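REQUEST ID: PR-0412
SUBMITTED BY: lab tech R.K.
PRIORITY: routine
TASK: structure prediction, single protein chain
INPUT:
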Amino acid sequence: MRAVLEKELGAKVEKRVARDEEGLVFDRPTIVDVDVVVRDEKVTLIEVRSHVGLSDVSAFARKAKLYEVKTGRKAHRLLIVTPFIDPKALEVAKELGIEVYTKT
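STATUS: complete
OUTPUT:
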């Protein structure tokens, strides 16, 4: 996926790892990572998972907030890529403005 984004679309792909001292994402201090794609100065955060539940959607939204706090840059798009997402999780993702790419 990284090669396609970089070579074919001219995007910069990176994994950002940050220490979440305040426990914003998981309610306790921990290391948090997120995949970042930058193209034409627009930031997209991507979460790739084999299965997504409600807690995964909520955690991804909090990761986006942490990214903004740590970098001072707000993501233009939030994407989840998964073959399976729980119906309630899909509903909440839509409410939060998170795009979901799934098999259905």
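NOTES: Residues 80 and 100 are 5 Å apart (CA to CA).
REVIEWED BY: pending
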